[in-house]
Amino acid sequence: MIDEETARERVVSTADRLFYAHGVQAVGMDTVRTEAGVSLKRIYALFPSKDDLVLAVLRRRTHQWDTGVTGAVSRAGTPRDQVLAVFDFLAEWFLEDAFRGCAFINVFGELGGDSDRIAAAVREQKASFQRRVTELVHEAGCPGHLAPQLVLLAEGAQTTAAISRDPGTAAHARAAADTLIRHALGDFQGPGVSGT
């Protein structure tokens, strides 16, 4: 018999893959049991309800998101490049075969109106991302109002890329972010303006 930690990881990773690919409501607990190779009794001992399993999946996704953003930022040079690295992270993610958009938005669309706990978990992840972007914007010497603008670009890019299946959406969002940053820092030159 597998230990509790292994069983939990197996169930959460399986549910994550299935929910992301097919939607939470389309995937029954019997399917999770079969795919994970963990008995239904054991699954319900670990996760008393399907909402509990969804919340565990969202915690896993939060960790993956935070790790991905942190990794991209750590590879960037200047503080300005670190802000733009968020969009580089998106560019890599959008190229993955399994990309289906933002898991948090997907789950909120399915369950956010019916589960206060799930809605709160999604809102916290989005707020956490905004706090991280706010930190990066501050470190780059940009005004605070830039952070929510960049977050909207990143969120919109995820949705647009999922619908259009165009990974190039990240590059467009990055170019728009770069324009906003340059404008905020006062080194923006609009069309027809040349430096002298």
From TrEMBL:
Keywords for the protein's UniProt record, in alphabetical order: DNA-binding, Transcription, Transcription regulation
UniProt key word Phosphoprotein: no
Residue ranges that the Swiss-Prot or TrEMBL entry lists as coiled coil: none
Domain HTH tetR-type intervals: 5-65
A GO molecular function held by the record: DNA binding
Segments of the chain annotated as binding DNA: 28-47
Protein name: TetR/AcrR family transcriptional regulator
